[in-house]
Amino acid sequence: MNSSHRRSGRRSAAALVAGLALTAGLAACGDDGSDDSATDPASSSPTKTAGETPAETPSETPSETPTDSPETGAGGQETIPAAGPSGVTEATLLSATEGGGSASTTAFALDSDQAVADFSAQLGPGFAETVGTTANEMASELAEQGPAATLYGATAAIGCEAPRSVAIEAGEAGFQVTPKLPKSTVQCLAPVTFVVLFAVPDA
After folding, report:
1. What span, in angstroms and rounded, lies between the C-alpha atoms of 195 and 167?
2. Is 196 exposed, middle or buried, given 0-12, 13-18 or 19+ CB atoms closer than 10 A?
3. How many structural domains comprise the chain?
4. Residue 60 belongs to some domain of the structure
5. Backbone angles phi, psi at 126, to 5 degrees
6. Max Cα distance, the chain (Å)
């Protein structure tokens, strides 16, 4: 074989190598190492399988139910201090939200079933029954205990705050009840009716 044939073979081999290198380079440019699926929003989102449902978000509900209290609740009852020249040292405070009635300093003698019914009639149906039942129970206890005493009742206040104590004094029209209310700016969604029941020893 002469030298011209050897040179022609070398050129053909070199051309083949160059062609392969070029093909590899183009393939490398086409595949820049990035994963198309990584940048595709559709492929990045989780797929849902049949029967799979999104997790439900718990509904927002109050963790605690507001409890009734003498200030804001229905049917509250407690004993509060009483002061004044009448000799009464304590009184029973009944309360109910939207219990009806009108606040008055005048106390009414609850010395009979009819008197209790008349006093309770000014109040809302549910609260009237509570006040009437409590008044009758207190009157029965007074009759059993003696010495003789008369039960009185007054709608001491209507508002958001319960009286902390009451002052009871004898007036021309009977006993007058003045509630001592706390100094606050508490607001409530509905007014609360506060009724005071107390026994006064007979003279």
Report:
1. 14
2. buried
3. 1
4. no
5. -65, -45
6. 154
How far the first Cα of the chain sits from its last, in Å, is: 154
What is the residue type of 112?
Answer: S
Q: What is the pLDDT of residues 102-158, one digit of tens each?
A: 999 999 999 999 999 999 999 999 999 999 999 999 999 988 887 789 999 999 999
Domain range enclosing 86: 76-201
Q: Is 116 helix (H, G, I), strand (E, B) or coil?
A: helix
Q: How many CB atoms lie within 10 A of CB 69?
A: 13
In sequence order, what are the beta bridge partners of 93? 78, 196
Residue 180 one-letter amino acid? K
pLDDT value of residue 15: 47
Q: Are strands 149-159 and 192-201 parallel, antiparallel or unpaired?
A: antiparallel
Q: What is the dihedral of CA 94, 199, 132, 179, to 10 degrees?
A: -30
Is the residue at 94 inside a domain? yes
Residue 134 lies inside a defined structural domain of this protein: yes
Tell whether 59 is covered by a domain.
no
Confidence of residue 173 (pLDDT cuts 50, 70, 90): confident
- What is d(CA 152, CA 176) in angstroms, rounded to the nearest whole number? 10
Degrees, nearest 5: CA angle 117-169-91: 55
- Tokens (6 digits) for 182: 């706390």
